[in-house]
Amino acid sequence: MAGASAGLGGRPPWNPPVAPGPVPSSRGLGQPGASHGDWPAVLVLEDGTTFHGTGFGARGEAFGEMVFNTGMTGYQETLTDPSYCRQIVAMTAPHIGNTGVNDTDPESRRIWVSGYVVREPSRITSSWRAQRSLAGELAAQGIPGIAITGTRALTRRLRDQGVMRAVISTSGGADPRELRQRVLASPQMAGADLAREVSTAEPYQVSPPPGTQTQYRVAAVDLGIKAATPAAMAARGCLVRVLPATATAADILATGPDGVFFSNGPGDPAAAGYAVEAMRGVLAAGIPVFGICLGSQILGRALGLGTYKLRFGHRGVNQPVKDLATGKVQITSHNHGFAVAPPGTDGTGPVSLAPFGTPFGRAQVSYVNLNDGVVEGIRLLDTPAFSVQYHPEAAPGPHDAAGEFDAFCALMGRTRHAQA
Predict the structure, then answer these.
(1) Predicted structure pTM score
(2) Measured between alpha carbons, how far is 6 from 9 in angstroms, rounded to an integer?
(3) pLDDT for residue 261 is more than 80
(4) Which residue of 28, 84, 170, 256 has the fewest CB atoms within a 10 Å radius of its CB?
(5) For the chain, which domains are there?
(6) What is the pLDDT of residue 1?
(7) 326, exposed or middle or buried, with CB in 10 Å at 0-12, 13-18, 19+?
(8) Please, are residues 314 and 369 in contact by the beta-carbon 8 Å criterion?
(9) How far apart are CA 131 and CA 152, in angstroms?
(10) Is 277 designated active site?
(11) pLDDT: is 351 or 27 the higher one?
């Protein structure tokens, strides 16, 4: 349901500072004003696989990396997650749009997916919270959608062959062969630096809710942050200062933080060298660090580990991760196509708790994905820093991992006490 993240409570409509100038090219090239319709549409993958269907949302074309999301809930949060920049998202749940959209649940200032693929878009909206229909919102923001009966076949294709570039076209009579050639000429995700495209243009602040005392000052580096994340920290007494993706270590430390947070975001971590350098500067200063998703990959690269592209990524709300120290398993929310390579491997080696050396002291892998063995977290043993690959803010998703924010607050408290 679109309201899956409403449990964060009282969140105002998301409206951080916006960079001037044109909308990034990752957005769908649709024409605003269309909505539900029976116009023909086609989805063409870079390997030539073609799906014919019915268009909805905006008319036009959308290019991007074709990925799938296995969540049965939270489509509005998915659409507005900046981590989906320059991607066409297919939902594996068969019926999408039932609860419409509203102005409370978006995770950022706009829809970031390039295009949207569903099996059956809801023809009606049925929720007391709804303010608009899904199709109407896609149309208003120029995002083409396509309804196909073969979402299962599409998902299996991506699982078997890996994610690939694609196009949605609602231009009647478009030649799939010509569309494929244009897909092959479109940008790849490997090597893409997208964090600076989706990040805030100017710093802004998220304060604790009324009645909650400020306990810690957090500098949050926005690599594609979701609204629920600073809200979750603020609810725990953190005064969160959100900074642009390109903030340097000096910029971050100048805010006088008790802790530094590196957010989720889109693109290839190997292309975000500026964030890696900022991370290294903060680690060297001994300030507590917490990173999630792309922020976890940035921490890995700052420690000297490699990153690599997954075959089809983790996107959904049902990923099991295991704490290697305790054996506890959490069901978590994910959205990433890259991962940290285990120490000394290309990503295919075994993962263990064995400490390994870094420029900032010893570290260890803390969590692992039970589906495929991917590294899901890193913990430093001699420096106050840790990360997780998943989304503890759970917007949408289960709340098993919400305690990671509590762990960050506890780390800031211990560090403050040790320095007193």
Answers:
(1) 0.90
(2) 6
(3) yes
(4) 256
(5) 4-184 (3.50.30.20), 195-419 (3.40.50.880)
(6) 33
(7) exposed
(8) yes
(9) 30
(10) no
(11) 351
Where b means 16+ CB within 10 Å and e means fewer, 219-246 reads bbbbbbbbbbbbbbbbbbebbbbbbbbb
- Judge whether residue 3 has pLDDT over 50: no
The verdict on whether 393 is a catalytic residue reads yes
Tokens linked to 291:
């990173």
Q: What is the pLDDT of residues 87-130, one digit of tens each?
A: 999 999 999 999 999 999 999 999 999 999 999 999 899 999 99
Q: Which of these, 1, 3, 10, 116, lies nearest to 54 by C-alpha position?
A: 116
Cα-based distances in Å from 211 to 10, 140, 214, 234, 345 = 14, 38, 10, 12, 49
State pLDDT tens for residues 55-86.
Answer: 999 999 999 999 999 998 899 999 999 999 99
Instruction: Exactly one of 314, 391, 404, 409 is catalytic; name it.
Output: 391
- Higher-scoring residue by pLDDT: 373, 346: 373
**Apex 407 CA angle, 77 and 251, nearest 5:** 75
Q: Which two tokens stand for residue 292?
A: 């999630």
* Per-residue confidence band for 21, with pLDDT thresholds at 50, 70 and 90: very low
- Of 161, 168, 147, 159, which is closest to residue 50 (Cα–Cα)? 168
| Annotated catalytic residue within 293, 334, 336, 376 | 293
Mean pLDDT of 19-26: 36
pLDDT value of residue 349: 65
Residue 272 has, within 13 A of its CA and on its CB side, a CA count of 41
Task: Tell me if 386 sits within 8 A of 262, measured CB to CB.
Answer: no
pLDDT tens figures, 190-204: 999 999 999 999 999
- 8 A C-beta contact, residue 35 and residue 57: yes
Helix, strand, coil percentages for the chain (3-state, nearest 5): 25, 30, 45
Angle between helix 228-235 and 403-419 (nearest 10): 50
In this structure, the strands spanning 144-147 and 204-206 are unpaired
Q: Helices 273-285 and 294-302 meet at what angle, rounded to 10?
A: 70
pLDDT value for 98: 95
pLDDT surpassing 60 at residue 25: no
Position 310, amino acid: L
Rounded to whole angstroms, how far apart are CA atoms 366 and 347? 16
Structure tokens at 228: 């629920």
In this structure, is the dihedral angle defined by the CA atoms of residues 180, 194, 375 and 304, taken in order, positive or negative?
positive
